[in-house]
Amino acid sequence: RVRAAEPRGTVAWGAAARGVEVHVGPVAELLASCPAGSVGGLVLAGVVDRSPVEDLVELMVTATDRLAADAPLVVIGAAPTSWGPIALDLLPGRPLHAETWSLLLGRQGFRDVEATIGEPPATYAVRARR
């Protein structure tokens, strides 16, 4: 069973029309509605590039509680170096580096943390296990 969270209604409705169960709202709301240990895996993308770091840390704590033992977590983000100076100056949430995600996940107790940097280094993926 796959569930998605999308705060933009038009994007959410498009996914729902293709058969994806979509929560219209932030991923933190969706995770908060799940019992502890009930989520079999989690992919975070999009939200990781535009949220303040304190919201991301809170999201990671909630995800840790909701993920089942040995469940995978994947973070897909834009490398901060790929953003131009205007975007870096104007956007409220700035993307974290893959190394920062690796450190945060390790400190949160995740294991098998591995980062993959895209070529050219415009995107990255960080994988870990609960």
Which key features would you list for this structure?
130 residues, alpha/beta, 4-stranded mixed sheet, two-stranded parallel sheet, 6 helices, 38% helix
Main sheet record:
4 strands, mixed
Oligomer: single chain
* Terminal CA distance: 19 Å
- What is the radius of gyration computed over CA atoms, rounded to a whole number of angstroms? 15 Å
Which H/E pattern describes the elements?
EHEHEHHEHHEE
How are strands sequenced across the largest beta sheet? 3-4-6-5
Average pLDDT works out at 87
Question: How many strands appear in the DSSP assignment?
Answer: 6
Number of helices: 6
As residue ranges, the low-confidence spans are none
What helical percentage do the residues reach?
25-40%
Shape: globular
Proportion of β residues? Answer: 25-35%
Structural class: alpha/beta
Describe the structure concisely.
Helices cover 38% and strands 25% of the residues. It has helices at 9-17, 27-32, 47-50, 53-66, 85-90, 98-107; strands at 3-6, 21-24, 42-45, 72-78, 111-117, 123-129.
Could you explain how this protein is built, in words?
- The protein has 6 helices and 6 strands; from the N terminus they run βαβαβααβααββ.
- The chain has 130 residues and is α/β, with parallel strands linked by helices.
